[in-house]
Amino acid sequence: METLRNNLLKTAALIAAAVMAAASLSGCGKNIDQKPDATEPTEPTSSPITTLTEPTTEATTTTEPPPVEPDPLDKYLEYYEQNDDFVGWLSIPGITHSNGELYIDYPVVQCDDNSFYIDHDFDKDKSSAGWIYADYKIPITGLDMADNVTLYGHSMANGTFFRRLLDYKDLSTVKDAYIINFDTRWEEAQYVIVSCFLIGIYDWQDDLPLFEYFKCRRFDTEEDYNYFYDNIMLRNYYTSDIECEYGDQFLTLSTCAYDFDDSRFVIVARKLREGEDPSVYKDSYAKNPDRHKPSIVG
Quick check: pTM over 0.85? Predict the structure, then answer.
């Protein structure tokens, strides 16, 4: 397995170098505009004066020790040593070459912006093919990550990186490849696909209000979660028996589509719950005749 992944990195690097000379191979060259989030309310500079009654006994408080970050998984140490932006590994077992190798089987990086890995490879060398990277707003650590982690990747014409995500427009693909593996440096995890949809990134591309899926990071309230879930289901290519609820964790994969200018194809998967058997979902996927399509495509 390690040999395969090392070969993968070398192969990806060679491919990336080749595509730099051919702009036609580049998938999406435009980055989704990352608008600043709303300013958080600040604490008041003063508080009302109050009269306190002297307590009869001295109050005692206990402070719990901060949680300890778990040890990183040994199998990923070499990738972190190679690039300290490494945060995990993404693979999709159901999409394979004729020799059985996976099309999507990449280390994932995260830095302090969403621009660097658009045109840099895993070794941080310039490359028009870029790399698979996680949205930067909420760092992935051994103790915390976004409620919905978004990963970006180019849709390369030679089939590398996220090109094969476009296959999910076909029902047979989602039935064969409905499980996504996304390990962080500290934890192995599986996700089951709950939505696949096409969307634009500008207001004028649709007659519905713009759904900025890439900003749905934290679900601090059930209302936040419902907004996210209702929108991904409204546009979903498929229906299924998979249930989701407030408190679930999600993984979103985003790449360029070619249905219209500045379109994106997006896949959302829910993290499997403890003891959950995903095989029961394989045959529950069906085409959604009522899915919302961007108005720009008619």
Answer: no
